[in-house]
Design goal:
With 1433 residues, the protein is α+β, with helices and mostly antiparallel strands. The protein contains 57 helices and 25 strands.
């Protein structure tokens, strides 16, 4: 037990003990004697006295000459300190002393007298104290403190208190001796009590006696002080003091309050660990909230629970009043097939459309009101999302599939977000205190997308901007609360606002109809609003609004232009019209791709982007089924192509005509025609400036989202194919049986480096043996391998590796396994080799091999052994292995070419849904999950749980003993809350011990096992299961009266004829009766119960798939059908030449190749020895690929005939063009490239005698300078003609400046001119006085403290961070201008509310130019910037 001193002085003394002065050493010695620790040697007294006293007094210096003068003052101060200390200690002891009743109770229980002891309650000290003092070996029982006492930080114990508790040296002494010794004690400051009465004086005397007894106790417990009498001890005390002589120097004149330490805040783990580590361990406040809330964990998260950055969602759930609207919204967006089949007049399920809407309604209610997860609904509430008609029980129609149920959840989340934003919009509108009929009657009922909410907010802001600005502050659930703030006036006012506030707004009213009325005409079948014709033509009408006094001349045409702008803006910002154009784009839009100049050169016929390089007029409806659009976006981000989404002229004209029809007048007069022309211009401007850009932007994002979602679902389906399979099991085993597995790998297959590693896992996944052998050729190693097989008897042998040498290992293993065992083996007379041998590998095993999880689980195993563990685990349970990957599952390739285009969070969500589906389909044994850390990875995927709730559940069960008997304990023991129990109960199985007989008496064992707990039957359906079992056994209630409720379940499960008896039950009639009685829909549930009574938790997954030959070849070599297509030319190495003139080769990937005599040469009768040598690399054409997996034989037939090689393989390697191909543009670009190539060939190469001259082009010059120093120069020919030279010099890594130099012939000789100001006589002068001068200027500025390396965005971020930390300051910095090498950008940030401004800085040989204003040096440049900045402000 440890204690920390409560006095900061005591702590300081303990910490600084090695450097104490002589007086301080006396103090420590006295203190340690009181504590019973030991005596401090005082032989070092007098050393460094001045220095140590200076340190102790914290700057108060005492010289030797002043010591005599200050001695009296110091003595008086020490006495004051001593008196203050005694008063403080007396107060503490009076407060801490045990009551008389407590002492009596101690004596009664321990048989020990505590009358003369100072027993105090034990209190917790702080973590920074010294270690506890040594105590006697003969300890007696003491009073244990309560938790309340331990939590009381205000009472920190003295060091002496701990010693008094444990000290029992006084037990051997008599109390009379102590009383006698007290009579001889004389107190030096007795005169201090002169003003006290007799009672107070006696009380003080008793207190001094107690202090003296403490000293004697300490003396008796220290061997070094034994034999010292009271007088000697008193002399020691007089000389050395009581250990507190320098308290005054350490604590100052102001006394430290006793509770000062108690005010120190309690240390929390947030104060110790990094926030990132706290988040990784899920210990944040949000994590605690997720754990305790009675809501499924995945429903509380805004992202996947696998995500490292998963955040808490603050969405409000839907209410019953929202469900009907939500169902209609979700049903219309469920899928195109659902809309076609159920809502088209000729759809096959048109008559069931109401049933579909009802099913969606029920699904949304379960998800967002009752908070049930998808697996629970699919398993236990499927009758509510399927067609159910008591009159048509034989009609089975799946209204909603499992994938569509997940889709409903995703759409429901979107609708919930839409509802929140829509309610915020309506609240903002109500704050305006206006009545807008168009908004309330037309817009409000049709706001059904997030885009329309944003459009409506923008429309209201535009229309009612003059009203209170705060009305438009729309806040959502995830917005941070902002305190009252001063609103900054807008720095820019749009042209629309200026025109709207002018007289032009009156002119705009002359169109005879308002913008929203035009929209009403457009979206209605009839035209509810009519146009009022003007009596004057537009020009004459506009002349009425001309202001003759205006400083700026105004013309009617200019006023009409501004009026058109007002009307077009209001028309283009109408939410309904914007939604219409979005819907129009969704159907009619097309996409085209145009390569950039860089893309023309880089994207050749073999480039992956060649497929869409000249994509032309492709409808976007045809881009939803592939990842092509994501590749197009990736190419655009690489600046290789430009993408355009647009409406065709015909579609745009059709939309424009419809809008014109809603806007124009029906009159035929000349004035009406003139106004209609003006209105047509308004429509054209609204389309071009507003509607078309909105449609293009939305269509791009919508298409990207749709393709990403579809691709993520596709990857999820690929994962389902891999994990929705039963463990690999022998042919004679039961489905779902977990085999014992022997995993074997040769690594890379190098005989000199790699040993054959074998790992044996039993059927529970536990590592049983790890063996390494050199080969399977030597008989000794074969015998060791056979001995391992005999001892462990694996059900399955798995072979994996990283090279083609694995095929040899597989063949050796098959050879050994298929051999007969030695006769007369007494140890295993009935042993037979396993008949199941598999060769496979998945990337998960490679990931596991190098993962932190593998290191923690098997730290002593080699990497290859860990790889074997991954292989074996996959064979035993693919689901468990993928679940254990967590967020690393995205590293597994499900779609080789496209998966990297999916955002990681979106991919994680799709993959997690599949894992959740399959895990709940299989079920999780909760007791095994508590004890098996590997199997425990499945628990977070159980319906209702997640990483946080699963971890908390395991800890709670472990605290109860680690084993559950029945599902009732989840509720009775408080392990799960109500909703979590309802979600998870049916998927958490509690395996039953077959040796334990079930209780017969209903009340004999309420907490005993229940056979239904080992089934998929939900506890809410237990009574149905018992009723079915009773009816199947034809028992009456009297027959089961008084027995355990599930006794009949046990009987039917063990009945040999149970299948017949259960099949004889009329479940349809039973379901109808339940519906008529309580409107319960249980038809599917009854089927589930029947299956579970027959085979509890039966295996529902498909068999383990066999690997195909190409999958094995890809695993071992990396080759695919694409890389080994017939006709491709590849490089091979000659290995040997057979006697039959067959040449054996090896591909770069390790695959064996063969060249038969027929494919050696077109001439025939050519000896291969005359053509090839061993070790020679040759080019060959792929003829055929031979794959024989059972024989582990993979071979490629090749041809080296010249007729095959001269044809080339361009035709086979060429990327296929898209069907929508712009052939004309492609041919024009080809011709242009050919002309450039011919021009470069025809152009004579110049030769200049200069060491820096090279015949390079720009890219070659940059490649040459890449490894050179900054400032190095290359002189090269110029593409501008023979009278030009180009000089390239290195500014920075990957940054080069190209300078064009013109050669001018003058009478006095040639001149090299860079510009009018900089002209030189020769190249050396140009390099020294121009290029190197600029380079020095660049170096000077880059060496300045304000220069920031890296891209400009990093400088922006640095400025923002600085201003955020220093709000009262501005910041600026320099960075290289990447677009103009050799120049700089000066970026500055005036304040935290402004944006970063960028000014160009040009570098010349003699100066820096800020806005063409030259300055000599960097300091002058900074000054010029500051002056200009202040002037601008």
């Amino acid at each position: 037990m440890s204690s920390l001193p409560d006095d900061p002085v005591d702590r300081a003394i303990h910490e600084d003990e090695p450097m104490q002065s002589n007086e301080e050493e006396e103090e420590v010695g006295d203190a340690t004697m009181a504590d019973g620790v030991g005596v401090t040697d005082s032989s070092e007294e007098g050393e460094d006295d001045e220095e140590e006293e200076k340190r102790i007094r914290e700057g108060f210096i005492v010289d030797e000459d002043e010591e005599v003068e200050d001695e009296d003052e110091e003595e008086e101060r020490r006495r004051r300190r001593k008196r203050r200390k005694r008063r403080h200690r007396r107060r503490e002891e009076e407060e801490d002393a045990l009551e008389e009743d407590d002492l009596e109770l101690l004596e009664e229980n321990t048989g020990t007298s505590f009358r003369n002891r100072r027993l105090t309650r034990l209190r917790r000290g702080r973590e920074d104290g010294s270690p506890p003092a040594s105590s006697s070996s003969r300890r007696k029982q003491v009073v244990e403190s309560s938790e309340d006492d331990l939590d009381d930080d205000e009472d920190l114990p003295q060091v002496q208190d701990i010693q008094r508790i444990w000290d029992d040296e006084r037990a051997g002494r008599g109390q009379e001796d102590e009383e006698d010794m007290d009579d001889f004690i004389d107190y030096e400051d007795e005169e201090e009590a002169g003003g006290l009465d007799e009672q107070e004086r006696e009380e003080r005397r008793r207190e001094r006696k107690k202090l003296e007894r403490q000293r004697r106790r300490a003396m008796g417990s220290i061997p070094e002080l034994s034999g010292i009498d009271a007088g000697a001890w008193e002399a020691i005390h007089d000389v050395f003091g009581d250990g507190h002589e320098y308290d005054w120097a350490l604590v100052g004149d102001n006394e430290v309050e006793p509770d000062e330490e108690a005010q120190k805040p309690e240390m929390k783990y947030q104060d110790v660990f990094e926030p990132s580590e706290i988040r990784a361990r899920m210990l944040t406040e949000d994590d605690d909230l997720i754990r305790v809330q009675d809501i499924p964990e995945r429903m509380q998260l805004a992202t996947s629970s696998f995500s490292q950055s998963s955040t808490l969602s603050f969405h409000q759930n839907l209410t019953e009043s929202d469900i009907d609207d939500a169902a209609a919204w979700v049903t219309s967006r469920l899928s195109a097939r659902k809309t076609r089949d159920f809502f088209s007049d000729n759809g096959p399920y048109y008559s069931y459309r109401e049933a579909l809407v009802l099913a969606v309604t029920n699904a949304l209610r379960f998800l967002f009101v009752q908070e049930f997860e998808v697996p629970y609904i699919w398993t236990h509430k499927r009758d509510y999302i399927s067609y159910f008609n008591p009159q048509e029980m034989r009609t089975r129609i799946e209204l909603i599939s499992l994938a569509e149920l997940w889709r409903i959840q995703a759409l429901g989340q979107k609708y919930r977000s839409l509802l929140e934003r829509r309610n915020s919009l309506f609240a903002a509108y109500s704050r305006l205190n206006v009545e807008d009929d168009y908004f309330e009657q037309t817009l409000k009922p049709k706001i059904d997308t997030v885009e329309m909410v944003a459009d409506s907010t923008e429309w209201l802001t535009m229309k009612y901007k003059s009203r209170k600005q705060d009305a438009f502050d729309v806040h959502f659930h995830d917005d941070e609360e902002i305190a009252d703030r001063k609103r900054k006036a807008p720095s820019r006012v749009s042209a629309y606002e200026i025109a709207k506030r002018s007289v032009v707004s009156k002119l705009a009213e002359g169109y005879g109809i308002r913008p929203h009325e035009v929209v009403q005409n457009f979206i209605s079948l009839d035209r509810p609003n009519f146009v009022e014709d003007q009596e004057l033509n537009p020009t004459a009408f506009a002349e009425q609004f001309v202001n003759p006094d205006s400083l700026v001349p105004q013309t009617p045409a200019e006023l009409l232009r501004r009026a058109r702008m007002i009307f077009a803006t209001e028309l283009g910002k109408d939410p309904l019209l914007r939604q219409t154009i979005r819907d129009f784009f969704k159907v009619e839009a097309q996409i085209s791709v145009q390569p950039t100049e860089r893309g023309i050169n880089k994207i050749d016929e073999h480039h992956p982007y060649f497929n869409f390089k000249y994509l032309h007029h492709k409808p976007i409806s045809q881009m939803l089924d592939s990842a092509q659009f994501l590749h197009i976006i990736a190419a655009e981000s690489e600046h290789l192509v430009n993408v355009s989404i647009y409406l065709t002229n015909e579609a745009k004209g059709r939309f424009e005509r419809l809008l014109n029809d809603a806007f124009t007048s029906d009159s035929y007069s000349d004035i009406a025609k003139a106004w209609n022309e003006e209105r047509s211009r308004v429509v054209q401007e609204a389309l071009d400036q507003h509607l078309i850009p909105v449609g293009m932007k939305w269509c791009r994002e919508w298409l990207r989202e749709e393709v990403e979602d579809a691709l993520a679902v596709h990857c999820g389906n690929k994962l389902r194919e891999r994990i929705d399979v039963a463990p690999f099991a022998p042919a004679d085993s039961q489905p779902g049986y977990s085999p014992s597995v022997l995993a074997i790998s040769w690594g890379k297959g190098d005989p000199q480096k790699d040993a054959i590693t074998m790992v044996m896992l039993d059927d529970m996944g536990r590592l049983r043996e790890h063996v390494k052998i050199d080969n399977l050729v030597d008989q000794d190693y074969k015998d060791e391998f056979i001995d391992l097989l005999k001892r462990r008897r694996p059900d399955v042998i798995v072979v994996g590796g990283f090279s083609m040498a694995t095929t040899k290992l597989s063949a050796r293993v098959k050879e050994v396994v298929s051999g007969k065992p030695a006769e007369g083996d007494p140890a295993t007379p009935d042993w037979r080799p396993p008949q199941n041998e598999q060769s496979f590998e998945y990337s998960f095993a490679r990931i596991y091999q190098h993962s932190k999880r593998a290191t923690e689980e098997f730290s002593t195993l080699s990497p290859i052994a860990k790889y074997c563990v991954g292989l074996a685990r996959y064979a035993q349970n693919p689901l468990n292995e993928y679940a254990a990957l967590g967020a690393d599952i995205t590293a597994i390739s499900f779609e080789d070419e496209d998966q990297h285009l999916i955002p990681k969070e979106k991919l994680l969500i799709a993959l997690e849904r599949v894992l959740v589906d399959v895990t709940n389909k299989v079920g999780v044994d909760i007791n095994r999950a508590v004890t098996d850390s590997y199997y425990q990875h499945l628990l977070p995927l159980v319906c209702g749980l997640g990483p946080r709730k699963a971890h908390a559940l395991v800890r709670k069960i472990a605290s109860l003993g680690g084993n559950l008997v029945n599902r009732d304990q989840f509720i009775k023991a408080g392990l799960l809350t109500t909703k979590i129990f309802l979600n998870a109960a049916g998927f958490l199985r509690i395996s039953q011990d077959p040796d334990v007989k079930p209780a017969k008496n209903r009340h004999a064992d309420d907490d005993g096992p229940d056979p239904l707990d080992d089934t998929r039957v939900h506890p809410e359906d237990y009574e149905l299961a018992r009723k079915m079992a009773t009816d199947a056994l034809e028992l009456d209630e009297e027959d089961i009266h008084g027995e355990h409720p599930s006794r009949v379940v046990t009987l039917i499960m063990k009945d040999n004829d149970n299948e017949r008896k259960l099949n004889e039950l009329n479940l349809d009639e039973f379901a109808v009766n339940m519906f008529e009685a309580n409107e319960d829909r249980k038809r599917h549930t009854l089927n589930v119960i029947r299956e579970e009574l027959l085979k509890p938790f039966a295996e529902q997954r498909g068999p383990f798939p066999e690997l195909q030959p190409w999958e094995v070849l890809t695993m071992l070599s990396g080759e695919t059908p694409r890389t080994l297509r017939t006709g491709l030319i590849i490089s091979v190495l000659i290995v040997r030449i057979e006697i039959t003139d067959t040449v054996i080769t090896r591909l770069d990937s390790g695959i064996e190749g063969i060249i038969t005599p027929d494919y050696l040469s077109a001439q025939g009768n050519v000896k291969p020895k005359n053509m090839f040598k061993k070790g020679q690399a040759v080019q060959a054409v792929v003829v055929e690929v031979h794959l024989d997996l059972p024989m582990d034989h993979f071979q490629v037939t090749l041809s080296t005939r010249s007729i095959d090689l001269t044809q080339g393989d361009g035709l086979f390697r060429r990327v296929k063009r898209d069907d929508y191909w712009n052939t004309q543009q492609y041919e024009r670009d080809l011709e242009m490239q050919a002309r450039k190539k011919r021009a470069e060939t025809d152009r004579a190469r110049r030769v200049i005698k200069h060491p820096n001259f090279h015949n390079f082009n720009a890219s070659q010059a940059e490649n040459f300078l890449e490894k050179q120093q900054r400032g190095d120069v290359v002189i090269r020919p110029s593409s501008k003609g023979v009278d030009h030279l180009a000089i390239t010099w290195k500014v920075e890594d990957k940054l080069y400046q190209h300078i064009d130099v013109t050669e001018i012939n003058t009478p006095s000789g040639p001149i090299l001119a860079v510009d009018d100001k900089h002209q030189y006589a020769d190249l050396d002068e140009l390099i020294v006085n121009h290029v190197q001068a600029i380079a020095r200027k660049v170096e000077e500025l880059m060496a300045h403290e304000k220069f920031k390396h890296g891209p400009e965005d990093e400088l922006h971020l640095s400025l923002k961070n600085f201003v955020a930390a220093n709000p009262a300051k501005s910041a600026y910095g320099f960075t290289l201008n990447r677009r103009k090498p050799g120049h700089f950008n000066l970026c500055f940030l005036a304040n935290k509310n402004s944006t970063v401004q960028t000014w160009p800085v040009r570098v010349t040989p003699e100066s820096y130019c800020l806005f063409e204003a030259p300055v000599a040096g960097v300091p002058e440049l900074c000054d010029a910037f500051k002056v200009r900045c202040v002037t601008r402000v």
